Amino acid sequence: MALPLLPESIIDDTYDQLLGNLSPQIRKTMNGLLDYFQDQWFTRVPISQWCVHGLSMRTNNNAEGLPFYPYVT
Prior knowledge:
The chain is mainly α. It has five helices and no strands. The chain has helices at 8-20, 24-29, 31-44, 47-50, 62-65.
């Protein structure tokens, strides 16, 4: 889930390292999720479109990304 926060240039290598550190049992358990993630977020959507490293708004809903300023009386 933290991959989009990393610099775009290291996302591929970091993902590969994460997979390499998984035990065979965990990898088997997570196989469906890993297949989905690989197919959807590495094959269909370019990393440049989901990498938010260095962006001030890290959400697709700009209202969520605005700083909160409490009402001052």
